[in-house]
Amino acid sequence: MRMVDIIHTKRSGEALSDEQIQYFVDGVVSGDIPDYQTSALLMAIFFQGMTKEEQSTLTMKMMASGDHLDLSGIPGVKVDKHSTGGVGDKTSIPLAAVVAALGIPVPMISGRGLGHTGGTLDKLEAIPGYQVEISEQDFINQVKKDKLAIIGATGNIAPADKKIYALRDVTDTVDSIPLIAGSIMSKKIASGTDALVIDVKTGAGAFMKTLADSRALAKALVDIGKDVGMQCMALITDMNQPLGNAIGNALEIEESIALLKGKGPADLEKLIVTIGGYMAVMGGKAKTTEQGQAQCLEVIHNGKALASFKAMVQDQGGDPKVVDDPKGVLPQATYRIDLPAKQSGVVSKIVADEVGIASMLLGGGRQKADDKLDYSVGIVLRKKIGDSVQAGDALLTIYSNRKNVEDIQKLLYDNIEISDAAQAPTLIYETIE
């Protein structure tokens, strides 16, 4: 078998055989296939696509290219959640605590942020002492004890994906649905969970900008999950404006804690309760999603979810006092600068990805993978789409460690619009089960 023939097959629009996909994955991991040939096949897949069968085969071969976590020693149905990423998307952190408080084990392996999207691990590392890298056995023991752990990838999970993703990033093939689906699901299947809810973001601040592309990706992800016997469903949710109010690592932890005290933003609570309802059914704690959602609201407002979060923080080396005194424990920015509205009216547009870029430029995100983060900086929205505003009112507050933020202010003014009328966007568009 020759790599050039595999490239030719896909370039011609034909389906690759299981043997061809295996040869490709093996060659990527071993280094026998040069980057230029891997890149050529990725480009062919980008333009020609893949069948449902090809997608499943590619996912399983990438999953089998490395370690597979064995979570069978953890009693119960292990349920996880994945988001395709967005601005202000801290959902995983409070959601995991809510679901764990229902008695469902949540072994969550998360990632870091790059560019305008934030990473769950970066947010948690804003808590002094929190360790995202623990051994596989410690991970399993903690989930047994607390029903919850959120860590970075352990061992050698899906090494083929690591190499392929690096080339996708530099060959402009990142937004290929078969390649995105294979990347996400190979890691999730290798992580050993029994059930998975996927939050596919759509809109300006999302990876998928259109509802049609988001629907296609969600369907591909669910199909792969079902093909391997995993309980799997997806929601398509809005990312045309930031989720919640806080954008920035420490600020998002503070907002997560507020939510677990029953004082979080309405949109964030609605999303968490909705996703949590599905996870409750998958985990066998509720017969209907409505019953599961009611249970999620109950543990948010009776303090059980907050206790789950505090236990996780403490057992992963973080300062548990962050729950009682977030501002006293989390890093704080030197300057807080309001952005006043230039006119009265109704906020009609907040371009999510540009707000995320503004936070990144303050130091809250990475332009390169090895950039050092400033956990204290970011942006807190005071108004969202559909809110009325008077000239001079604060649209948002910039949290910065530099006094001069004229560049940030200009970027934000350019991406927030005020009109005579506007309606808040739909938060949850549809579910794919």
Automatic annotation (TrEMBL):
Transmembrane segments: none
Pfam families, alphabetized: Glycos_trans_3N, Glycos_transf_3, PYNP_C
Key word Cell membrane present: no
Species per Swiss-Prot/TrEMBL record: Lentilactobacillus fungorum
EC class of the enzyme, as a word: transferase
Family stated for the protein in its record: Belongs to the thymidine/pyrimidine-nucleoside phosphorylase family.
EC number from the UniProt entry: 2.4.2.2
Domain Pyrimidine nucleoside phosphorylase C-terminal stretches: 346-419
Tagged with keyword Chloroplast: no
Catalyses which reaction(s): 2'-deoxyuridine + phosphate = 2-deoxy-alpha-D-ribose 1-phosphate + uracil; thymidine + phosphate = 2-deoxy-alpha-D-ribose 1-phosphate + thymine; uridine + phosphate = alpha-D-ribose 1-phosphate + uracil
Cofactors: K(+)
Record-given protein name: Pyrimidine-nucleoside phosphorylase
SMART domains in the record: PYNP_C (SM00941)
Database matches in PROSITE patterns: THYMID_PHOSPHORYLASE (PS00647)
Subunit structure: Homodimer.
PANTHER family: THYMIDINE PHOSPHORYLASE
UniProt keyword list: Glycosyltransferase, Transferase
Role this protein plays: Catalyzes phosphorolysis of the pyrimidine nucleosides uridine, thymidine and 2'-deoxyuridine with the formation of the corresponding pyrimidine base and ribose-1-phosphate.
